[in-house]
Amino acid sequence: MNFNLSEEQNQIRDSIARFVQENYAFDQRNAVVALEHGFSEQHWQQFAELGWLSIPFAEEQGGFGGGPVDTMVLMQEFGRGLVAEPYLATVLLFGGLLQAGASEAIQGEYIPAIIGGELQGAFAYLERQSRYALTDITTTAEQKDGKWIVNGEKTVVLNGGAAQKIIVAARSAGEQADESGITLLLVDAGSAGLERTLYRMTDGQEAANITLSNVEAKAVIGSPGEGYGLMASIVDEARLALCANALGALESLNAQTLDYCKTREQFGVAIGSFQALQHRLVDMFGACENVKSLLYRAVCAVQDGTEDAQRSLLALKVMVGRAGKLIGGEAIQLHGGMGMTDELSVGFYVKHLMIINTLFGDADYTQQLFAQLVNAAPQAGSAAA
Amino acid sequence: MNFNLSEEQNQIRDSIARFVQENYAFDQRNAVVALEHGFSEQHWQQFAELGWLSIPFAEEQGGFGGGPVDTMVLMQEFGRGLVAEPYLATVLLFGGLLQAGASEAIQGEYIPAIIGGELQGAFAYLERQSRYALTDITTTAEQKDGKWIVNGEKTVVLNGGAAQKIIVAARSAGEQADESGITLLLVDAGSAGLERTLYRMTDGQEAANITLSNVEAKAVIGSPGEGYGLMASIVDEARLALCANALGALESLNAQTLDYCKTREQFGVAIGSFQALQHRLVDMFGACENVKSLLYRAVCAVQDGTEDAQRSLLALKVMVGRAGKLIGGEAIQLHGGMGMTDELSVGFYVKHLMIINTLFGDADYTQQLFAQLVNAAPQAGSAAA
Amino acid sequence: MHTRFSEEDLAFQAEVRQFLRENWTSELAATCANRATMKEGIEEWQRRLYKQGWVAPHWPVEHGGTDWTVTQTFIYNSERAAAGAPEVMPFGVTMVASVIIAYGNDAQKARFLPRILKSEDWWCQGYSEPGAGSDLASLKTRADLDGDEYIINGSKIWTTYAQYANWIFCLVRTDSSGRKQEGITFLLIDMNTPGITVRPIQTIDGFHHLNEVFFDNVRVPVENRIGEEGKGWTYAKSLLVQERLSIAEVADSKRALTEVREEARAEVNGGVSLLEDPLFAKRLTDIEIRLMALEYTELRALASIAEGKEPGPESSLLKLQGTEVQQAIQELRMDVAAYYSGTLQGDLSAEQLGHDYADTAQKSYFRGRASSIYGGSNEVQKNITAKYVLGL
Amino acid sequence: MHTRFSEEDLAFQAEVRQFLRENWTSELAATCANRATMKEGIEEWQRRLYKQGWVAPHWPVEHGGTDWTVTQTFIYNSERAAAGAPEVMPFGVTMVASVIIAYGNDAQKARFLPRILKSEDWWCQGYSEPGAGSDLASLKTRADLDGDEYIINGSKIWTTYAQYANWIFCLVRTDSSGRKQEGITFLLIDMNTPGITVRPIQTIDGFHHLNEVFFDNVRVPVENRIGEEGKGWTYAKSLLVQERLSIAEVADSKRALTEVREEARAEVNGGVSLLEDPLFAKRLTDIEIRLMALEYTELRALASIAEGKEPGPESSLLKLQGTEVQQAIQELRMDVAAYYSGTLQGDLSAEQLGHDYADTAQKSYFRGRASSIYGGSNEVQKNITAKYVLGL
Description:
The complex is a heterotetramer, with two copies of chain A and two copies of chain C.
Chain A: H1 7-23, H2 26-34, H3 41-50, H4 68-81, H5 87-101, H6 104-115, E1 121-124, E2 140-144, E3 147-158, E4 165-171, E5 182-188, E6 194-200, E7 206-216, E8 219-221, H7 227-263, E9 265-266, E10 269-270, H8 275-304, H9 309-335, H10 346-358, H11 363-375
Parallel strand pairs in A: 1-4
Antiparallel strand pairs in A: 2-3, 3-7, 4-5, 5-8, 6-7, 9-10
Helix pairs in contact in A: 1-4, 4-7, 5-6, 5-7, 7-8, 7-9, 7-10, 8-9, 9-10, 9-11
Chain C: H1 7-23, H2 26-33, H3 38-52, H4 70-83, H5 90-103, H6 106-117, E1 123-126, E2 142-146, E3 149-157, E4 167-173, E5 184-190, E6 196-201, E7 210-221, E8 225-226, H7 232-247, H8 250-266, E9 268-269, E10 272-273, H9 278-306, H10 318-336, H11 350-353, H12 358-368, H13 378-389
Parallel strand pairs in C: 1-4
Antiparallel strand pairs in C: 2-3, 3-7, 4-5, 5-8, 6-7, 9-10
């Protein structure tokens, strides 16, 4: 049992921290987010050169062969700097699905392109009505003349604007919310019949609603009708990565707030000298440490393949949602009027954390999944192993 | 619209406050609770002489003809002093059921006896398994040769030790948790086949488990098989009275804690000068005012017969449960080690409030009743009228 | 003790409903909801209230008040909020007018009150400064007497709708020698005076409602001073009590909660309405129960005032609890909107975005964070309650 | 970064389980649970641990420690708590022993440590005084040097199990001239010395575990002083860190939570198990999630210590969060017991009362209120964390 990073992991962490320091000051980030698609193509190329885009891919596909701890380190530092580049969408979701379910031919073509920084992707799983039920899918996929034809609409597709290729979750059989009958299809963003409506999220990233009218898919990812298991496992990996990202953002927000409380004076003293605020700052610190402990717990359990993995992952996602609300709310409140302005980065961190809460199920929804899991049967005692 | 007491109500309040001041100092209360059955027969006679036992009864039965505001005033002052005499059990529950459902002959015999302080009663509605489902009754009532015969066990019957007469909720028809098929029966505590196991509650009052083996009832209260409606309406009245009692206890506990914080010194200053504690004391004050506002709301709505009554009553019971936990917990914590001892009355107030939370459904249970009521259909806007 | 409505109350309720039906039209609501036309919409609404005589119910009758009973005030506010109509902008009618009525001279009353009633002036508030937020009394904007004019230098911040205002009421420092609460003077300043510039502040809700107002040798006639020089703090403090009562916005929270309930009823997750989701129902009813309490806390305070008594200690909680409830409703609505709460609608239609209230929910949420900061932050409210109510 | 168990770890786990099976018998558990025989039960349990060599795992090996890895410590504690076996009484093995090992002389180590290991002495703690609770350093009990003896006058309060103890370790004042933290001396006092009287304090849980201890001209040999005169505060402070770690009781909370879950599963309300009640499930899982976090916060601290590093800043939260979780579980269990949580079982059997854990639940709840008061109140913990961790 140990909670230390390897030397390699420390190097990744340090190099991202350096990148953030040099490229993600407040005005720099604003400029990046103002670019088309809300991120910097130049940064993305830098990520490719530094090897960051290769981290989760297997060595035989030209990747670094990293595990969940490596992804955690990277996403945490990205979160600390509120890095806008679409690592989650392209590498973890799109790339993750390809690696787990695409044919060798497609893997051989696409994964090197992702690693090289040439290919942007997205995963379109949400619809207007779906809320947090991943299985609630009305977009249809039908086979005609040996081809898969997709019809319907997917919404709030992260990185949906920049993505050249998109994996779409569609229904090829079954009722609207069935687990079976879901098929994942790879489509070209430039396909005939595919239209995108672009908009921004509150933290600056771009999303798209995508309508598909008789769009011909390039390939099925995984097995037809059995896409749910595949997407569920990639969503679990993404949850872990997102929570690491949240931890970085929470740590940064706590540090900013603490700094502000130490320097902002009212009534002739720093506001951080008021005991009532001190106790609240301790609660914020505690919430952040809870997230960290659950993140370490979940990442170890996932990596070690223990039975604690699913339980820890859900617990972590709940805690991230709650800690985000607590720390986000307090960060604005303790910054006072300044916290209300777009002249500090506080608001952007808060918005990013609120979006993370809603991705793949918010705290309340996830807690009910957690309750079902742990209350199902009398439990064995031990947590680790 | 006004929230003032009448002159008569002010007199009742003042006379109870005087009684408490003279008879309910810490040592005096301990002595009272140590008596057989946990209260003072002498006090009870005094209550009779002062007319307090007559307040909720109709004038034609020799009562004062008081309404919910009168009962509120009385119960609030009893709560402030943690008065141990069984007003709830004998006057409000037992007496309330008689007034609402007994034959004229029984009313004419029993109600004057209650008012005169000669008769103690109890209402036995709980069973081991029932938790908060008032309808969950396995004790049976069968008619044999024109007589009602009761078999089963009732538990945690408040004032079950001193009670000479007991109204028992029994099942004469239907399934275990049906609303219909419940019959309320008046039994004599000295009946053949009736056995009592006495014990104390944490706040000092006495309760009993009562087993009934072929006990012959004296009378049916209300109509056979239709006891539920009757008991539900009396339970609603008792809820309101209990919440008034809780408010008195909460106000007293807040006052005691505030006093302690102003006088107890640590680090060379009164602990009430610490800002973190001040903010918590403000929260305690706020919780108490919330209870007060909901109590006024509920008592007015019940008295005025508005559609807001049931909603307000349930909201009040929820708030009383939550405020009791908050204020009770903080009262002990802020009293520090002293709060842990039986050398102050703090602990007894806390225990009394925790018991009130569990009577007729705790905060969580009652909140679900509230949610069912308010979420049932799109709501009209207005609260009053 | 009772809350029954009398026959007169019921007749008044009918009158209010009729007025709202006829005057708070869907056209006017749309004008107010659009950022580009909001100012005109609000002024039009206030003119309609003026015609009815209801623009300033709490003023003394001789200046245009209504002399309503507590019950009537409660009825008016409940009906107004239930209809979705806004409160009158507080800066003129509620804030500066209270000070003018209490401490202004006859000339000032005659000059300003009728224009406020008729919405001919738009007022803004010049209290906070970059270095003086919760510690308001440490303000530094100077007013130096020069003949029969003050010369103002300094700046004010967080000034709501300064871009629309033609008048600002300010606390300025006329003396730095004594206690910081002394030496503060209350001035009325024409926003068109040379030397005033307004800088917009972009806020986290994406709106422009806050500003910084700079004063560079701005000359203000002494006749625009309220009361005595150096007594401004006293005048402003009395106004803060009024502000505290108005910030609670209980009736508006009731409407907001009803809206959230219906939005939740329509949201379906895995085939089940969100309203049936027990954790959601718990959060919703937690808020509703607090709001039901708060409504009566406010009524208790109003009933005291109506009897000519000071409002009880419970009134100190109104701002604190009122804003807590508002923020809880805003947060809940974000969660009802789920992942759409993270979207910015921009120029898209709701149909294009795929959601019809997420954008509003998100903006209200972020804008609402300010309610626990302004008007004396909630931390300051707790300090005040601890000191003056609990005697700590 | 990993939490895998090695082969050795699994073998150790099996050994612990076997030891517990053979030694933590149901007879012994019953002896410990009975108030009349509790002391003997605890001493017997500690003797069995001593025979196994496990009574003081954290001591240096030369004095009787085990030199376990973090994982082994974690395994031992998890298994012990899951079996329902108690921790060793902390006053000797954890508290005074830490000070003796760190600051005692060789004679003191040789005299006291073996007797602690063998449970031949029962220690209690003499820190708090009626006027000195959270403000511990303001203590007034005096020790005046008279030849080679100190003469002690004063009193100590909240002394757990003083009625069983034959030794007490005390902070006493040997100098009142300087800062209050200076002039405090750490003494070991034989409870059988003339002049010591013990007054029981009845507590809200109905037990007698707390006492007040009075010292009336009690003579204590100077050889019973730890380290230097006037340095007692420093010694005691280092011990507080140890105490803070042990108060979290994470493994015991895990067992308690498992018990509550099963009790709730068996409670039926209107035909539905309480475990299916969504509000109950919410509260239960709120606690479980916090506890899962806390478990790893503790492991992170233990892992740091095992590597010879200071525990990280997160360790300052252990006492605070550990006691919050304990209290939340106790409160939840009260609610599971419903109206029975208000009953006192007294001399009745569970069958007569009609409920089998309500009485325990109620006593644990009230006793548990102390955990946020002793060992440095949670308010003091927050002050410490704000100052030393957050730098405020």
